[in-house]
Amino acid sequence: MLADLRSWAPDLWAGVQLTVLLTLGGMAIALVLGLLLALARLSPRRALRWPATVFVEVIRGSPLILQLFYIYYVLPLLGLRLTPIQAGLAGLAINYGAYLSEVFRAGIAAIPRSQSEAAAALGLRPRQAMRLVILPQAIRIVVPPVGNYFVSMFKDTALVSTISIAELMFRGQLIASDTFKYMSIYTVVFLIYLVISIPASLGVRWLEHRLDPARVRPAAPAPA
């Protein structure tokens, strides 16, 4: 078994690196897309609100694997050809961007209206109030759920193996098909996902605890 692990290690390590890069890149794009969609859905302008709403509902109503297939296999028929890496990043970013938009929208909506009114009283325009007053407070609220989606994206990168991206799952499949040691290789891949995702999940829980509003409330005075 140890000899097998030594021979598999270079391929699996390359797969882990690509998986992490896909996760980081996909989440970075998804965060920007999710925030833009959330702002569009909160806009009083129908020309922004309705298309954003339709986009989010369509993406959330279809499976990620189908979106990956559509981007990689269907879009070239319409003249847009992407490499597997580009298609994988686009699929992950679009899918998670739609879900993160709801997280951002909920976070912004959770900020009391009095904050906007106070900003207006100070002479701030709506855009300035959103950027300087509302969003900084909303970010504190949305960080824990965003962290959970980050861990979920790391695991969902396994789906991009279906469009020939040689990430961790794809590398494991290749090794298994060459060696026929399905139990050993898939157990190793399983453990690699756990070794990375469990500490990440614990980190998200720690961050959620640190950002819990209850922790920053002043303690009640002791009874006389």
UniProtKB/TrEMBL annotation:
<keyword id="KW-1003">Cell membrane</keyword>
<dbReference type="InterPro" id="IPR010065">
    <property type="entry name" value="AA_ABC_transptr_permease_3TM"/>
</dbReference>
<keyword id="KW-0813">Transport</keyword>
<dbReference type="InterPro" id="IPR014342">
    <property type="entry name" value="Ectoine_EhuC"/>
</dbReference>
<keyword id="KW-0812">Transmembrane</keyword>
<feature type="domain" description="ABC transmembrane type-1">
    <location>
        <begin position="16"/>
        <end position="204"/>
    </location>
</feature>
<dbReference type="InterPro" id="IPR014341">
    <property type="entry name" value="Ectoine_EhuD"/>
</dbReference>
<keyword id="KW-1133">Transmembrane helix</keyword>
<keyword id="KW-0029">Amino-acid transport</keyword>
<dbReference type="InterPro" id="IPR035906">
    <property type="entry name" value="MetI-like_sf"/>
</dbReference>
<dbReference type="InterPro" id="IPR043429">
    <property type="entry name" value="ArtM/GltK/GlnP/TcyL/YhdX-like"/>
</dbReference>
<keyword id="KW-0472">Membrane</keyword>
<feature type="transmembrane region" description="Helical">
    <location>
        <begin position="12"/>
        <end position="40"/>
    </location>
</feature>
<dbReference type="Pfam" id="PF00528">
    <property type="entry name" value="BPD_transp_1"/>
</dbReference>
<dbReference type="InterPro" id="IPR000515">
    <property type="entry name" value="MetI-like"/>
</dbReference>
<feature type="transmembrane region" description="Helical">
    <location>
        <begin position="52"/>
        <end position="75"/>
    </location>
</feature>
<comment type="similarity">
    <text>Belongs to the binding-protein-dependent transport system permease family. HisMQ subfamily.</text>
</comment>
<feature type="transmembrane region" description="Helical">
    <location>
        <begin position="185"/>
        <end position="207"/>
    </location>
</feature>
<protein>
    <submittedName>
        <fullName>Ectoine/hydroxyectoine ABC transporter permease subunit EhuD</fullName>
    </submittedName>
</protein>
